[in-house]
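Hi Prof. W.,

I finally got the Immunity protein 35 domain-containing protein prediction working! I wasn't sure whether to trim anything, so I left the full sequence exactly as given:
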Amino acid sequence: MEQNEALQLAVAFLAHSQRDDEPPLAIDAEQVCESNGLLIVPYNSVQYLASRDVREQLLDCWPILVDLERGDVRFGTLEERHLWRHPNP
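And this is what came out:
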């Protein structure tokens, strides 16, 4: 799967996953990367992404992971944190 297609899956997944009580969320396109066959797609509040002011940052945003071979989309887990902390191409 191409990265652009995987990114579109992540955008749709985020939109579908967003709750009514959350601030508007968006993909952090500057931080998207590939690691171990996964597209790692961080996201945050629209307000934070516009300003990059850390006071606006949501602290518990686990990135969306898209398996580039199978097209599976899900949120990352604590056990997978190394994938986005120390990505391997």
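The two ends are 15 Å apart (CA to CA). Does that look reasonable to you?

Thanks,
D.
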